[in-house]
Structure of Efflux RND transporter periplasmic adaptor subunit:
Amino acid sequence: MNTNAELLKELRIDRKAPPPPSRRGLWITLAVVAVLLLAAGAAWAIFGRDRGIEVQVATVQAIGGSGGGSASVLDATGYVVARRMATVSAKITGKVLDVRIEEGQRVAEGDIMATLDPVDADAERALAASQLAAARSQINGVQAQLHEAEVDAKRLATLVGQQLVSKSQYDQAVAQRDALRAQLATAQRNADVAADRLAIADNGVDNTIVRAPFAGVVTAKAAQPGEIVSPLSAGGGFTRTGIGTIVDMDSLEIEVEVGESFIGRVKPKMPVEATLNAYPDWKIPAEVIAIIPAADRGKATVKVRVAIKTKDPRIVPDMGVAVRFLEKAAPQGEQAPRSASVPAAAIDVRDGGSVAFVVDGDGEEGTVERRPLKLGGTRGNDRQVLSGLSAGETVVLDPPAALEDGGKVRIVAAGESKS
């Protein structure tokens, strides 16, 4: 009995004892530990090491050159204008008989542009000519009478001395002679007035012919045959006031409005490079003529006149033009200093001097080099750099205070939030 009971106890399962170890569970545990170690390493690689300060960058641009080149100190826009332009009209009111101009036609000074109906002017001239002829014929009649009166007075003077005629008869002859002399003077003055009236009538006839006041190109034809033209607006706005518009193309220049805050950079005789909006690849040499001594209160601008040194038929009035006011060119044979342009945001003040941080690296990360700068003029939102930078280099915009020489940076695009 005892033996059997002991055997039954040996066959009983002890549920409190730990289960025997499994080889599969051991491999799962090792795999989980390995994954955790790899994740920790990746997290350290991403967040643990120093990736540098996030910055935005810009590229240095060249604005100077050799061989007498010059740098721009100010950019502006303006328009081509003509200093000599006229809308030609007749001096009198009349009906257009003939128009001899077309748009684009070249005219010389004195060329006939149009003619008006001369019927009234011709009639006035014919009347004035008749009046002059009548005055001159009256002079001839008075001169004949005066000649006879002078002979009678001379003969009677001899006879009265011989007491052959009375003194009263002689005095009457002298009075007749003097009266005829007065009539002759009046007739001569009337003839002069008639001649002046004829000259005025001739001008009236000439006023029916409209001539070009100067040589130029016709830019507008405003009247047609049969229309009524007048130097003054009349007829409720239905009367033409001009025959056409001509422009002296040799008087073309550029008119630019420069902001008050930048006008100090513009000087008379300063060289200018002009570019027409219609021909962006054509650089036209120009020069400042004058700065108009008056400001526009509403626009806060000052007007500048710029002379165009190149005469070309492609340049026409009212064309838009971009102008670059340049520094004085270096003398012939001298090397003009090369200069660069960077955004003003790339320039920082450190230790009392202007510096910039140049990025050394081709990818998104790199190190910076601190460079001292020698600055020139301001060009809009950019600054001219005379020394310290070269064209094509990359500089940091708005350098953080923590950025130092040799520091690491990470380049981000504009608009990206910095973490």
